[in-house]
Task: structure prediction
Amino acid sequence: MEKPEMEQIMKKAEVLIEALPYIQKFNRKIIVVKYGGSAMSNEDLQRSVIQDVTLLKLVGFKPIIVHGGGKAISNWVGKVGKEAKFINGLRVTDEETMEIAEMVLGRVNKNLVSMVQQLGVLAAGISGKDGALLQVEKKYSAGQDIGFVGDVTKVNPKILLDLIDNDYLPIVSPVGMDENGDTYNINADDAACAVAKAVGADKLVFLTDVEGLYRDFDDKESFISRITASEADELISEGYIGGGMLPKLANCTSAVKNGVHKVHILDGRIPHCLLLEIFTDNGVGTAIVSDDEPLPGAPGKGETKQN
Result:
């Protein structure tokens, strides 16, 4: 065997050895992955994410995917001659738009099921309506009526736990019902957070279109690799966090305060970012941890990653 070939094989072995303690630590633990954004609209990235989650399942994790589909919904809304409208970042969802959203999310859901099963793992695609998984009430945005958009009020995790116990990988579409049986669209971040709390997930991962959390988004040196929930709340209250990251980070801290051991914000545009964050010593995103897991030698409001 040639030396370059042997070196390449040895590097692969080193990668596996580095991953071993993480596989041992999280074996049989539940991990919820919120999947959306650019990673969903790009075919290569989509394949990368599904490969990552499938590998987690095969090495002993218990993954659950909660997916979005906002871009696909907007495309179909446009195809029927309607204009997508948003208020404070939330889609205005009239009855016709709700029908389109449920149809599109159902199609996305079954496509993901198919991709997972092509890799040799059984998957089950469900919506929040199945088994009364996600029960909601009508959501308002700053007092404004935005239609059939729901706030999760109750989660019945039995269907998810039953699927996991029977060796299925659950894939959840963020659609729920209220007490009258009406159907509502749910923000996928909110749905993932609610699911993670209810199933007692060890990890909740948000795949986003940014590298992670910054103290100052315009200063790339201010990237934060690890931060406690209280420190994250301080960043929010002091006005460091804005835009779409604000509700996402609020969901992260809420999950950590309600029993989720660790929440990760990852750049879904990076191929195999999920494996890089979970199975390597350096990681690639931001981790939000509980206050009783202090950061050794951490400065101020979180540990800034030094490049």
Remarks:
- Residues 18 and 281 are 7 Å apart (CA to CA).
- The chain has ten helices and 16 strands.
- Residues 295-307 have pLDDT under 50 and may be disordered.
- Residues 3-26 form the longest helix (24 residues).
